[in-house]
Amino acid sequence: xxxxxxxxxxxxxxxxxxxxxxxxxxxxxxxxxxxxxxxxxxxxxxxxxxxxxxxxxxxxxxxxxxxxxxxxxxxxxxxxxxxxxxxxxxxxxxxxxxxxxxxxxxxxxxxxxxxxxxxxxxxxxxxxxxxxxxxxxxxxxxxxxxxxxxxxxxxxxxx
Length: 159
Description:
Layout: H1 31-36, H2 49-58, H3 61-70, H4 74-106, H5 110-139, H6 147-158
Helix pairs in contact: 2-3, 2-4, 2-5, 3-4, 4-5, 4-6
């Protein structure tokens, strides 16, 4: 049995389109068309792969978790898992820093109040930039890998 040229799924002989990703199959499909035509819709979420990857980042770890559970396409699962790792981790870090920030404010540790507030602001800014960058890259169809989070996301996708 032949395999899909885009996603590698087994495709029955004579099938016009891949049942997994929707890419055209067979001799009639030109290689340039296969590389540049995204699937219109799929049975998983009804969204094109790049749009589903984009949506995985829209509400941070929440949309990442939803798409990770319902969409089985590798591109979408990777971006959903990466969204969970990045924004779930940043959420936990922000909660911890907020508790230290409040403790330093009420505990009389004046300099720690300002230092923790500054660190909290820098982490928020880094998270915002990552959020925009990941959404843009996913919409472009690029498998953008954030250095530490991508390795964890890979291990989540293999389970």
